Amino acid sequence: MTTPALLPLSGRRIPPLNLGPPSFPHHRATLRLSEKFILLLILSAFITLCFGAFFFLPDSSKHKRFDLGLEDVLIPHVDASKGAKNPGVFLIHGPDEHRHREEEERLRNKIRADHEKALEEAKEKLKKSREEIRAEIQTEKNKVVQEMKTKEKKPLPPVPIPNLIGINGGDPEDNDIRKKREKIKEMMKHAWDNYRIYGWGHNELRPIARKGHSTNIFGSSQMGATIVDALDTLYIMGLHDEFRDGQKWIEDNLDFSVNSEVSVFEVNIRFIGGLLAAYYLSGEEIFKVKAVQLAEKLLPAFNTPTGIPWAMVNLKSGVGRNWGWASAGSSILAEFGTLHMEFVHLSYLTGDPVYYKKVMHIRKLLQKMDRPNGLYPNYLNPRTGRWGQYHTSVGGLGDSFYEYLLKAWLMSDKTDHEARKMYDDAIEAIEKHLIKKSRGGLTFIGEWKNGHLEKKMGHLACFAGGMFALGADGSRMDKAGHYLELGAEIARTCHESYDRTALKLGPESFKFDGAVEAVAVRQAEKYYILRPEVIETYWYLWRFTHDPRYRQWGWEAALAIEKSCRVSGGFSGVKDVYSSTPTHDDVQQSFFLAETLKYLYLLFSSDDLLPLDHWVFNTEAHPLPVLHLANTTLSGNPAVR
Ligand code: DMJ
C-alpha cells in the first residue's frame, strides 16, 4: 500500500510524516502535537476504508474447502443467477423496489390469513370429543400410509433388459462331475431347509442352538438376509419351490422403513445385489422394486462434506456415521469402493442417474488424490477428504475396491476404460510393493502398513487369484499370460493354506515368516467361517484353464466342509482349523449360501451356466448382466422389456 500525498491543512505545507528510525530527530520535532493528531486521524480513516472495502470484495477462498485439488467435485454448485440463497445481501432499486414491497405485503397478508385459519381450526377441534379427534388422527394416518403405498407401487420406467444367456442348465456331461454337483445341491438344501425351519425371517441361522442369528451389519431388525442372499443360488440350482417361498417372504415382510442402523456396504452387496440378481434371473418385478426402495434409503449416507458415504446409515432417520474402530473417523476403501456395480444397474433400471452420479463422484475424487507409492490406503476421512492411516491390503478393508474397478469395465462391455486404467495402475503398484515369493516358493500378497510390508495374507485376499485371472484378458502390454499365471500362483498358495491344516479348511489369516509358510500363528486367526474366497478363485481358474486340479481342490474343500462344518441343524463355522476335533462357532453365514455353495455348484457345472462374457458377479457372487450401454443413456430408455 502506498502512502497518500498529504494535503496542506491551513495553507502551510506539512512536512512528510516520518515513521522511520530516529535518525532525523529535527524533522519530528518540527511537527506540532495537534497536526500529528489530525494526520493520525486521516490515516486511520483511510485504513478503515481499505479494511472495509476488503470485506466487500468477493471471497474466493470461502469456496475452496480442501487443498487436494478437488475443487470441481467438492465446490457446491450454486447457480449465482438465481441468487436467492441469501436474499438480504441484494439491494433492490427503482420499479423492482415497488414490486418487492408489493410482494412483501402479499406475503404478510398470507401469513396473517394462515394464522387466523389455524386459530379457527384449533377452536373447532376443541369443540370435538376426544373420540372424534382420535378418529380424525387415524384417518390422517391412513391417508399417509395409503399415499406411501401408492408411491411404492409406482411402476418403474421400462428399460431394455440385456440378453440373458445361460440362466439355467449347466448339466455336466461327466457322470462323476454330475454327482458332485448333485451333492453340492443337497448341501444347499440342507442349509436352506434348516434356516427355513429354525431361522425363517431372521438374518442368519444358529444351526446348533437352532434359532435365528444376526450381527450389527444388518442393524437391529430381521431383514431375512439369508433369504435375499440365497435366492439366485436357489434359482440356478433349479430349487424353484424354495425360490418361490423366499419370494413370498420378501413380498409380505421385507420392509426397509425400520429404525435400524445398517452397514451401507453389506446391505448393498447382499441385499441390493441379491435382489437385482433375483430380478434379472426370474423377471419378477418385486425384486427390482424392493432393490430400488432399499437404495433410496441408503442415499442419505452420501450426505457428507466430500460425498464419500458413511459406513452406516439409519434406514429411518437417514443419519450416518462411521465405525468407531476405523482410523481417524474414516470410511473404508472396500466399503465405499464397492457400490459401483449395483448403483450403475439401479440407474439403468430406474432411469434415475442419481445412483450413477454418486459412484462416479467417488471415483473422480479417488482419481485426483495422491497415492503413496501408487497404493490406495484403506482409510479415507469423509469430512476432510484426506487419507487416514497408510495401510493397504488386497484382503479385508481393501479387497473388493480393486475387484469393482475391473468389474466396472467388464460390466460396461469393456467400454469403461477409465475403470480399467485405474485397475491396471492399482494392480501394478500392488505387484511391485505387496506381492512376494516365500522361501519355499509360494507367491503371497502381503499388507503395507506405514512403509513396512507385513508378510501376512488373509483368507479374504485369496479372492485375488480369481481377479487376476478374470482381468488377464485386456491387460496392459498383453500381459494376459502373466496375470493368469499370477492368479494360478495365488490359488496354489491358498490351497496350501488349506492343506496344511488338520481339517483341510483354510485359516482366517496366515503368515510367511522364516520357516512358517501359509500357516496361522495366532490363535485368533485360526478360524474358518464358511468363507468362499478360495473356492471362488478355483472356479475362475477352472473357467479360464480347465485344469482339473481346480475341480479336485474344490471337491477337497467341499468334503472338508461337509465333514467338519455340517451339523444336523445346518452348517457352522469352526474355531480352529488346526485342531482335529472341530469346535463350532454356531453361525451359518448368509454368504455360505450366496457364495460358497454357488461357486462350488458352478465349479461342477458346464461353462454355459452363467457364462462370463455375459455375466459379472458382484462381490457377494450375485450375477449381474453385462450392460451394453454404448448406444443408450442412463437417463431413461423408451424400449420395453
Ligand atoms: C462376503 O460378504 C463378500 O465376499 C465380501 O466381499 C467379503 N467377504 C464376505 C465373505 O467372506
Automatic annotation (TrEMBL):
The keyword Iron-sulfur does not apply. Residues 145-155 have a biased composition (Basic and acidic residues). Its cofactor is Ca(2+). Its EC number is 3.2.1.-. It holds the Pfam family Glyco_hydro_47. It is an enzyme of class 3 (hydrolase). The keyword Membrane applies. Keywords: Calcium, Disulfide bond, Glycosidase, Hydrolase, Membrane, Metal-binding, Signal-anchor, Transmembrane, Transmembrane helix. Pathway: Protein modification; protein glycosylation. It is found in: Endomembrane system. Ca(2+) binds at T619. It is a single-pass type II membrane protein. The active site is at E266 (proton donor), D399, E508 (proton donor), E533. Disulfide bonds join C462-C494. It catalyses: N(4)-(alpha-D-Man-(1->2)-alpha-D-Man-(1->2)-alpha-D-Man-(1->3)-[alpha-D-Man-(1->3)-[alpha-D-Man-(1->2)-alpha-D-Man-(1->6)]-alpha-D-Man-(1->6)]-beta-D-Man-(1->4)-beta-D-GlcNAc-(1->4)-beta-D-GlcNAc)-L-asparaginyl-[protein] (N-glucan mannose isomer 8A1,2,3B1,3) + 3 H2O = N(4)-(alpha-D-Man-(1->3)-[alpha-D-Man-(1->3)-[alpha-D-Man-(1->6)]-alpha-D-Man-(1->6)]-beta-D-Man-(1->4)-beta-D-GlcNAc-(1->4)-beta-D-GlcNAc)-L-asparaginyl-[protein] (N-glucan mannose isomer 5A1,2) + 3 beta-D-mannose; N(4)-(alpha-D-Man-(1->2)-alpha-D-Man-(1->2)-alpha-D-Man-(1->3)-[alpha-D-Man-(1->2)-alpha-D-Man-(1->3)-[alpha-D-Man-(1->2)-alpha-D-Man-(1->6)]-alpha-D-Man-(1->6)]-beta-D-Man-(1->4)-beta-D-GlcNAc-(1->4)-beta-D-GlcNAc)-L-asparaginyl-[protein] (N-glucan mannose isomer 9A1,2,3B1,2,3) + 4 H2O = N(4)-(alpha-D-Man-(1->3)-[alpha-D-Man-(1->3)-[alpha-D-Man-(1->6)]-alpha-D-Man-(1->6)]-beta-D-Man-(1->4)-beta-D-GlcNAc-(1->4)-beta-D-GlcNAc)-L-asparaginyl-[protein] (N-glucan mannose isomer 5A1,2) + 4 beta-D-mannose. SUPFAM superfamilies: Seven-hairpin glycosidases (SSF48225). Belongs to the glycosyl hydrolase 47 family. Involved in the maturation of Asn-linked oligosaccharides. Progressively trim alpha-1,2-linked mannose residues from Man(9)GlcNAc(2) to produce Man(5)GlcNAc(2). PANTHER family: MANNOSYL-OLIGOSACCHARIDE 1,2-ALPHA-MANNOSIDASE IB, MANNOSYL-OLIGOSACCHARIDE ALPHA-1,2-MANNOSIDASE-RELATED. This is alpha-1,2-Mannosidase. The lineage of its organism: Eukaryota, Metazoa, Chordata, Craniata, Vertebrata.
